[in-house]
Amino acid sequence: MIARPNYIEQLKPFINKPQIKIITGIRRSGKSTVLQLLKNEILANGIKEEHVITINFESFAFAEILKAKELYNYIKERINTPDKYYLLLDEIQEVDGWEKAVNSFTVDYNVDVYLTGSNSHLLSSELATHLAGRYVEIPIYTLSYREFLDFRKSYLSKDRDRGNFFIEYLRRGGFPVIHTSNYTEESAYKVIYDIYSSVILRDTVQRYNIRDIELLERVIKYAFDNIGNTFSGKNVADYFKSQQRRVDVNTVYNYLNALEGAFILYRVPRYNIRGKEILKTQEKFYVSDVSIIYATMGYRDRIISGILENIVFLELKRRGYNVFIGKLENTEIDFVAEKQGNKIYVQVAYKLENNQTVEREFGNLLSIDDQYPKYVVTMDEFWKDSIEGVVHMYIADFLLKKNW
Question: Which of 35, 62, 120, 338 is the most interior residue, by most CB within 10 Å?
Answer without folding.
Answer: 35
